[in-house]
Design a protein that fits this description.
Blueprint (H helix, E strand, L loop, with lengths): L3 E4 L5 H9 L4 E5 L10 H8 L7 E6 L4 H10 L4 E4 L5 H4 L6 E7 L5 H7 L5 E6 L24 E3 L8 H8 L3 E4 L4 E3 L2 E2 L1 H13 L1
Parallel strand pairs: 1-2, 1-8, 2-3, 3-4, 4-5, 5-6, 6-7, 7-8
Antiparallel strand pairs: 9-10
Catalytic activity: N-(5-phospho-beta-D-ribosyl)anthranilate = 1-(2-carboxyphenylamino)-1-deoxy-D-ribulose 5-phosphate
InterPro entries: Aldolase_TIM, PRAI_dom, RibuloseP-bd_barrel, TrpF_fam
Pathway: Amino-acid biosynthesis; L-tryptophan biosynthesis; L-tryptophan from chorismate: step 3/5
């Protein structure tokens, strides 16, 4: 099965277009103001304008209010919501959109239990745990902690062209999610790094 790719933290239309042209299956837009990759609704409208068909737009939130999510969904063409905080299954499932729940991996994380709790999620995204940081840490975690579950797994956390092939071989995820690993600076994607990342995924 082909490993899908999401390129997250997109802030510019040209980066979204290049990601799509390079074969990315999804782009991620960060609606979390403390993040250096955060964008406004108006910026998101511009980024997604003219995006190629069959490329999914993922809106990322961290402990948002209902109004925050609704305001975004009303203004931006969003296919999937990604919740990266402490949101409950009930909160995540109320917006009438497919959603992904991010899990920050610790040695005692029970994936089977979380998969059952978030049974309405399309997938679980597994990221590195760092105290006080909800995501985008740029660090990997111990992939041996991952136990296969029935729900699709999206692997994130410190991925780049240097390690994504090994990550895919070891974890066999449904998809991989990259942000900092394809950047020239925070929020600005390197087209060369995107190309290299996509090559490594294809060759894994």
């Amino acid at each position: 099965m082909r490993t899908r790719v999401k390129i997250c933290g997109i802030t510019r239309q040209q980066d979204a277009d290049f990601a799509a042209d390079s074969g990315a299956d999804a782009i991620g837009l960060v609606f979390y103001p403390p993040s250096p990759r955060a964008i406004s609704v108006a910026q998101a409208q511009n980024v997604t304008r003219g995006l190629a068909p069959f490329v999914s737009t993922v809106a990322l939130f961290v402990n948002p209010s209902v109004a925050d999510v609704s305001r975004c969904l009303d203004a931006v063409s969003v296919d999937i919501i990604q919740f990266h905080g402490d949101e409950s299954p009930e909160f995540c499932s109320q917006f009438g959109k497919p959603y992904i729940k991010a899990i920050r991996m610790k040695p005692d994380t029970n994936l089977a239990q979380l998969s059952e709790a978030y049974g309405s999620a399309q997938a679980l995204l597994l990221d590195a745990y760092q105290p006080g940081v909800p995501g985008g840490t740029g660090t990997t975690f111990d992939w041996s902690l991952i136990r296969q579950i029935e729900k699709p797994i999206i692997l994130a956390g410190g991925l780049s062209a240097d390690n994504v092939a090994e990550a895919i071989k070891q974890v066999r995820p449904f998809a991989v999610d990259v942000s900092g690993g394809v950047e020239s600076e925070k929020g600005i994607k390197s087209h060369d790094k995107i190309s290299a990342f996509m090559r490594e995924v294809a060759n894994a």
